[in-house]
Amino acid sequence: MITIALHHMGGEQWTAGLIVQEMLLQALHSLPAPRPCVKLTVWKETPERDIEAFRSLVDEVICLPAAGGKERAEVLGRHGVDVFFSLPTESALDLNIPRIVWMYDFQHRHYPENFSTAEVNRRDRLFKAHAASADRILIYSQAVMTDLAAVAPESIGRARLVRFVPHIPPNCCEMAPGEICLRYGLPERFFFLPNHFLPHKNHAIVIEALGHLAACGRKPAVVCTGQDKTLVAETLAARCGKLSIEKQFIRLGLVPRGDYFQLLRKSVALINPSLFEGFGLSVAEAAGLGKKVLLSDIPVLREHDAPRAEYFAPDDSLELASKMAALWDDASTGFCRDPAAERQALARLSVRRDLFGMNVMRIAQEAVENRAGAGNACLLEAVGA
């Protein structure tokens, strides 16, 4: 039985990391026997509150020393770790054990203006170093694979494209989603836009679409969640004021995951207007619940092949307004929830999650075999010399 160590990722500043971590651990934890032994590695200073939710999904939590790679590798060896899974971080580079790296996206190359020059250079250096040294590279979209091929073409043979499958809590659909409106004081009907307020997330086109609709006497609501303590959010709020749509563009900030899923279930449709995504997690979650989605027409969101999707040009607010109006007026939308579609989507999700877990386990085994094969090749070369 293989032992996989997954290094803790994400936190308050990057909640997507925590969500993907849960996704990976749930998929591996749900595998039938003989499933892999899964351990979570953390830095000694990591607060317990950040890891307590994951303890039931792993066989052990290992505290790693801040010292060099040799010391960390020795700790991992004492705990029987066969392969180490991490983001492309500095601390993983000097570990002399089989490694899998998750290349999440190359946003710093597409939108360098969103980062400092130092951060662009840091990411470039780390991504290239990991592409050159990792035994396997985990990619979750063809869009990222295409970027990797441009940056490090020699690494493509070690890259594996795996469609990530979201974890939706089993009790999610036992709750009455209408209660979420009372909790947050929301209207009965709304679109849902759960993106952080960052430049490339393109909230502005939704505000312009609401402005077009308001000019025609239509007033649908859009509920937004995500980090909104940003300059982008302030600028958007000012634009809402000029268009007199403040009450239609509702910001809730960060909300608990349970509330997030109820907002998604209750919504008329999910909107993702993003200009760039490495994957598009909210789209996968919406599809997992059988929801309708309105998506910017960019390749990575097309990859999801969401069964109830409509697409709009990410710079065409009139097209988005038209599609929003059609959904808003559609009598079949009712109060937005389709229980049959939800049940069918969740049944498919369970099968896909098992396949996801098996694919991750297979890649872990490949990483170990790759390192062993490299070692044997070196031995043969030495003997031949």
Describe the overall structure.
This protein is of the alpha/beta class and 385 residues long. It contains 15 helices and 13 strands. The strands form three sheets. The protein has a seven-stranded parallel beta sheet with strand order 3-2-1-4-5-6-7, sandwiched between helices. A three-stranded parallel beta sheet has the order 8-9-10, covered by helices on one side. Strand 1, helix 1 and strand 2 form a beta-alpha-beta unit.
Would you spell out the secondary-structure blueprint of this structure?
Blueprint: E1 3-7, H1 15-29, E2 37-43, H2 48-51, E3 60-64, H3 69-78, E4 83-86, H4 90-93, E5 99-102, H5 107-110, H6 117-133, E6 136-139, H7 142-151, E7 159-161, H8 179-184, E8 191-193, H9 203-215, E9 222-224, H10 231-243, E10 249-251, H11 257-266, E11 270-272, H12 281-288, E12 293-296, H13 299-302, E13 309-312, H14 317-329, H15 339-384
Parallel strand pairs: 1-2, 1-4, 2-3, 4-5, 5-6, 6-7, 8-9, 9-10, 11-12, 12-13
